[in-house]
Structures are given as structure tokens and as C-alpha cells.
Amino acid sequence: MSSHDTTRRAFLVRAAVGAGSVAGAGLLPDASAQGIDQHQAANATAPEAHAAGAAHGAFFNAQDAATVAAFSERLMPTAPGKPGAHDANVLNYIDLALAGAYGELQEFYRRGLAQLDAYCRKTYNESFVRLDTGRQYLVSAALEQGKAAGFAWPTAQAFFETVRTHTIEGLFADPVYGGNKDFAGWKLVGFPGGQAVYTPADLQTRQAFTRAPMIGLQSQAVNAKT
User: Fold this and answer.
1) Domain edges within the chain
2) From 187's CA, which of 95, 119, 175, 211 has a CA 20 to 30 Å away?
3) CB-based burial label for 49 (10 Å; 0-12, 13-18, 19+)
4) pLDDT tens readout for residues 106-121
């Protein structure tokens, strides 16, 4: 089994465990659950956050957008016939969320990305996006295991877990939130989405549901404008 397949399998297992919260697609991660102590956050010393830089999206500048896109793709890599974070437009989901409902995590991301960049440059003399795929996996594993040096606030594990949670949401939430492009995540797991009707055969089969979603919040919004 390739490293891509192993990573995808681990990601989907974690996504299944958190399916209940992801389905809501409106739940802000509990700061305490992510290991974020507000007093520590206010007083921690960390590498200087990235400047605003050239505009990219609703929140990220081009540099941070590239890092988040690459990092989320390592969490859920694309494979032949199997969509990953890039295909599902996870970056767009996180970008829009941080500009809106997840606004309180903006500084969390700024500092986390700055620390990630500093760790990669110190360890490999390159930024995360310039590392080859193998080293990007090594960096991701170091963050998950809390072995990446130089992280104060957020901690390496807190940053990793938050980005992974948001990647799961971006893959499986209703497309109206900016991710799950073309229902990529739903199709991946055989989730039917909204359907106009379910046949008796649909309700009795034990096979994965393969008919494309017909109705979602996104399509409802589009139809409302026409």
C-alpha cells in the first residue's frame, strides 16, 4: 500500500469518527478542545506572523493559501479516480470560514503558518510548499506527534488537529460553504446528499449509493436566484 493510500485511509477513518460534527458544518472548534489557552495565546512568543501580502482570497494571502493548500493535500491526497483536498476545493472552504464564522481563529492560523514556515526552513532550508512530497509528509507527521520544534502558540499538535478538522469539513460539508466541490466528498463515501425521491430499491440495497446528489443548499441558492 502506498503512502498516499495509507494517508487517505487514516484521514477517512478520522473523518468517520467526527462525521456527526462535520455534518452540521457550522460548528466552531472549541478552543479548549484544541489546546488553546487564552492567557497563553495573549502572552506567547512566536515567529512573526506573515504580513498581509498580496491579496488572494477572503482571508489568506497568496503565500499562506499555497501552504494551506499543500498541507491539506498531504492530509487527504488526490489519487487516480479518488478526489482529495485539492479536488474538493478545501482551501476555499477554510479561506471563507476564516473570513466569516471562524474569524476568531485568524490569529491562530497566522501564527501557526508562521511557525510551520520557520520549522521547515530551520529543518530543511525550504518553506513547506517547496519541499518534496516525502518531506511534506515528514513535517506533517512531526506536527501531529508534537515533535516539531519551535511551536509556542498554537502548539504543533493543536495546529495540525485544527487544519485536519477543517480539511474534513471542507471535504464533506454542503458545497454552499465553499468546499466539497461538485459533491466530491459525498461521492467519495457514497453519501446521497439531497434527492428528490428514493426508490424502494434505494432503501433496500446494501450497496453504496452512487446516484449523484440532486439537491443541496448550493443548488437551492442558485435556483432561488433564477
Assistant:
1) 3-191, 193-226
2) 95
3) middle
4) 999 999 999 999 999 9
